[in-house]
Amino acid sequence: MNDLLGFEPDARLLIVNSDDFGMHRAINDAVVRSIEEGISGSCSLMAPCPGAEHAMGLLRDRPEIPFGIHLTLVCDTPRRRWGPLAAKEEVPSLLDAAGELFTPDRVPELLAQARLDEVEREFRAQIAAVTDAGPAPTHLDWHCLADGGRPDVFDLTVALAQEYGLAVRAWLDPARQKVRARGLPVVDHDFLDSFRLELDGKAATYARLLREVPVGLSEWAVHPGLGDEDARAIEPGGWRVRRTDYEFLTSPEAREILRSEGITVLDYRVLQEVWVGRGT
Fold it and tell me: What is the Cα–Cα distance from 206 to 113, expressed in whole angstroms?
């Protein structure tokens, strides 16, 4: 993969992408700080969320920050809900019996009933909400759905990326093999989702994983948040994950490990250039 991206064969390349940008302000502020003051190189924006307008304003003021669109079909904050950007009557298969987006624990139900044409309608609404506001994204990925959750949703996303001139995050082997067969870049190694890390000793775990980044392209999906009072009320079970991510990403130790290990932090602009140049 290194040669496809223009790097030496022995280069250790790492995408550190801050997911969930736009969920609420404590996340937005932490994401920006993690990029401007820490080791995160990019972020992914959730267009349907309550903090999306604030997040897009931050991006307009900081055009140097690369970001993707975190395509969102689930809502994981019951205390501050969001819904689809398309009219609910136009995407009924994406809604539960109460007319709301499914929660992450009910993703199998969502995937069993979601119609592809309605998924496309909602994805297009989310992409348009971002691009119409001005910021220019680099890639598409998904919130709580690895590789879109279904092969047809992944293929749809790749088609949308082709239309809009973007790259796509591919995480699991079937999708990665599909993308590689088209001569396009994806990560070489296992994907890290910070919500899967234990809270106890997390900083030490991060430090070890950073030192162990292998040759080739790796990606970490991190979830920084400030963990303020409002954030604790919104996400009583998740704010600690975000706060501990933020603390490590902005730590002097993280920056020193990158320097001493010679690891290059990338963002999806490098992949986007290849995806567009090869005519996805």
Answer: 38
Residues of the chain with pLDDT under 50: 280
Query: What CA–CA distance (Å, rounded) separates 49 from 42?
Result: 19
Element of type H or E holding 107: helix 107-113
**By the 8 A CB rule, do 108 and 102 touch?**
no
Q: How many domains does the chain have?
A: 1
Q: What is the CATH number of the domain that holds 9?
A: 3.20.20.370
Q: What is the pLDDT of residue 278?
A: 81
- Greatest extent of the chain over all pairs of C-alpha atoms, in Å: 55
Range of the domain at 224: 2-277
146-179 per-position pLDDT tens digit:
999 999 999 999 999 999 999 999 999 999 999 9
For 100-155, the pLDDT digits (tens) are 999 999 999 999 999 999 999 999 999 999 999 988 999 999 999 999 999 999 99
Which residues, other chains included, contact 62 with Cβ-Cβ below 8 Å and sequence gap of 6+?
A: 32, 36
Contact status, residue 75 vs residue 101, Cβ threshold 8 Å = yes
What does the chain come to in residues?
280
- 85-115 burial string, b = 16+ CB within 10 Å, else e? bbeeeebeebbeeeebbbbeeebeebbeebe
Contact assessment for residue 69 and residue 133, using Cβ atoms and an 8 Å cutoff: no
Report the alpha-carbon distance of residue 265 to residue 271 in Å, rounded: 13
DSSP letter for each residue of 175-198: HHHHHHTTT----SSPPEEGGGS-
Residue 96 near residue 58, CB atoms below 8 Å: no
